Amino acid sequence: MQAAMQLLLLLLIPAVLVAERGAVAGGTVVGNASTSFLEFSVGKFSYFELDRLFPKEAILRHISINVTFLLFQIHSQYQNTTLSFSKTILPNTSGTGSDRGLVFILRPEQTVCTWYLETLEEKPVHNIAIPLSYSEGDPIPGGCNLEFDLDIDPNIYLEYNFFEMTIKFAPASVGFARGVTPPPCDTEEGQDFRWRLQYDVYQYFLPENDLTEGTLLQHLQRMAQVPQVRASAVKVTTLTANDKTEVSFSSAPGQGVIYNVIVWDPSLNTSAAYVPVHTYACNFQAVEGGCASLGRVSTKVFFSLSALLGLFVCFFGHRFWKTGFIFLGFFFYILVARLTSMKYDVLLVLTALAGSIGGILLVATWWRFGLLMFCMLCVGLVLGFLASCITFFTPLGNLNIFRDDGVFWVTFSCITILIPVVFMGCLRILNILTCGIIGSYSVVLAIGSFMFTSLSSITSNVLRRALNVNFNKAFTNVPFQTNDFVVLAVWGMLAVSGITLQIRRERGQPFFPPHPYKLWKQERERRVTNILDPSHHIPPLRNRLWGQLTQIKEFFQQQQPSGERTPLLL
Description:
alpha+beta, five-stranded mixed sheet, elongated
């Protein structure tokens, strides 16, 4: 009896562990890695493991006679899974990826449907799957596919790089009953065919800095069916049948995002959802620079040093106002990166050098010529640049009118120039505001190099648009969650504290220090005319340098013999 109880406990422990994983994902557990058959129910998510040595057969029974077609979809975090109509894997009857689905057109009187699942990954793959049913009035996602391998392709294909993420999908077709010939897709435009269909593109952000598998699988359940998608996600745009079925978004490495498309038939008021696709815009399997360790070491060092300089500028920038010119190096980075193909680390070094050289040149200009207005114009342009970036960071930046590069850059430049023009009558306030806001924002950029925050996209979106000619087509939506509110509060606190401290400290003080070259020239004239001044008797600089060189030369010369070593005797 005791041995039987121990055996029962050993069998229950794996089942409990699997059930816990299924509870995290929010789905029903239908089997473990060694189970050959998996039975599903329409509209219910199921969680299971898929092993390379144990392919599975998915079965759906008791299909209603009112159902015209089924959409079976399977999802994993980053490992690939193959979904097929048959045991033999063929390109036109199967799909492989982390988010894949197949549409099965039912035959008359058919009540059972079967799919085959397998993976080539070395480790077991944790999946979640769901079969969805649609009637004859519902549009068929991907029913007019002419680009991809499947005859009917309900999948959304996603590509990403440093600048943007692009989703592509096949056009849908209008619904039809069982046993009826499908309507043609290549006919002329008309309300009786697919040309009446519309496509709503939805975007759903996962919690920031959360790369766990359970979180993804749980949130994917909100993006599979039409009612949940409309209730949970944000509609980005609507495409007609005449538009290209391709949409671009700004890339956000390390931030999970799910996309889906709902096709709507306005004549019958019916809808169907494509297979949702997700991405983190990074590689989970990369050892360096992957999702677990985002950002280069050089980037973190660069922005950490910039944050230290920014904090100094935020609280002491007006007293030591020449240090604020270092931020002008940002403009040089755009120019060099736009016109060259240098490596990333080299561009960071050039940015720091250009900022330093630009600051030195501006300081030299002020020291020699006293062009205070010109220097403050440069400082105001930096503040205007950030103000313009913030303007286009809002939903205003996604308006169709700003898809045109000419309209965008003219508007951007006008906002940038407007700030220094408004504050030209009070230059000290302009300088203090610039020091407080720009200096504190450098801390935000430093935080963004260690963890994802949407506030770092304020300037990065403009940078990407300047570097990538295709970025004007991308939607720049970003999540704004708890982490972003905390970072925004830190930014605001630093900016207000720095501005308030500098205004109180500079009260009663001269607006700006006097012209250095003029003071130096007056001091030199005073020394020349005042013979009682001890500095009047100091030799000129040229004579002093020559004297030093002469002493060094004599030090290395050997003493010449005189030719007489003993005194003469008288």
